[in-house]
Amino acid sequence: MGRLDNSARRAAIIDAALPLFARKGFAATTTKEIAQAAGVSEALIFKHFPSKAALYEAIFRSCVDGDEELAQLLAMPPSTATLAAYVQAMVSCYVEDLPGDRDNLLPRYRLYFMSLLEDGEFAHMVSRWMSEHIAPPFVASLHAARGAGDLVPSALVTENAFWMAEMLGSTLATIHLPPTPVVPSLADPRTTVPEAVAFILRGLGLKEEAVALYTRSLQCNQSSNPASKPEPTCSREADRDE
Q: Which UniProt keywords apply (predicted)?
C-alpha cells in the first residue's frame, strides 16, 4: 500500500474496516484488527481517521457519496411520478441490487442491522442523512400527488409516511442476509418488485387508478426482461396520449 496516494489509502482502510464492523460490531472491532486487514499500521489509520468513530462515519459516507442514480432521483421535480420513482428505487435496491451484488453490498446491510443490535450509531447516521436528503423531496412529492388529486383524502403527508415506506422496503433486504433467502416467495424480483411497489404506493394513500398507472410499465418490464433494471417511472402524459 506504500505507493497508494492518500485517497486510495483511505479507501483501502474503509474497505478493510467495513466487513469487520459488519461482522463484529463497532465496540468489538479494534483498530489493530483493522490495520491488519488493511495491511497498514495503526498509526497510519489514525493519520487518516482521528478516531474509530471517524472511520465509522467515513464508511457511511462511502455508501452514499457518488451515487449517480441517487443524484438523478433527487433532481426530479416533485410529482406523483417522482413519488413512484422513489418507491421503485427503494424496493429495487433491497430486492434486486443486494442479491445481485452480495459481495459488495451485503457488508453494508449487515453493518446497519448490527448497529441496530448494538449502540445504534451507524443506524442513526443513516437516519439523519435520510431525514436531511431523502425525506424532504419524498414528502414534497406526496404533497404534489395530493395536489394532483392522486391521494385519498386521509393519506398521511408527513415524514412519517416516508419512514413507514422505507422501513417496509428495507425489511425486504433481511430475507437476503443468509445465503439462502428466508422467504423464497419474496426472492424473485420479477414478482416481488412490482408487488411491493404497488403495496407501498397503496399504503401511502395513492388512489387505485394512480397505482395502476405508475406500476404498469414496471410490471411489463419485469415480465419481459427480468435481468434488466426497471425504468424509474412511466409517464402519465404519455399514457394519456395513447
A: DNA-binding
pLDDT score, position 219: 56
Is residue 98 within 8 A of residue 169, CB to CB? The reply is no
Helices (H), the chain: 6-24, 31-38, 42-48, 52-64, 68-74, 80-92, 98-100, 102-117, 121-133, 135-147, 159-174, 189-204, 208-224, 236-241
**Sign of the CA dihedral running 144, 145, 151, 154:** negative
Q: How far apart are CA 147 and CA 18, in angstroms?
A: 43
Cα distance between residue 120 and residue 104, in whole Å: 22
- Which of the 8 DSSP states describes residue 231? P
Q: What is the pTM of this model?
A: 0.80
Q: Are 39 and 1 in contact (CB under 8 A)?
A: yes
Q: Which three cell numbers stand for residue 168?
A: 417496509
Minimal CA–CA distance to 191: which of 213, 221, 170, 233? 221
pLDDT in tens, 160-171: 999 999 999 888
Q: How many residues in the chain? A: 242
108 three-state secondary structure = helix
Taking CA 72 as the corner, what is the angle to CA 70 and CA 75, rounded to the nearest 5 degrees? 110
159-174 helix and 189-204 helix, angle to the nearest 10 degrees? 160
Task: Give every CB contact of residue 24 below 8 A, 6+ residues apart in sequence.
Answer: none
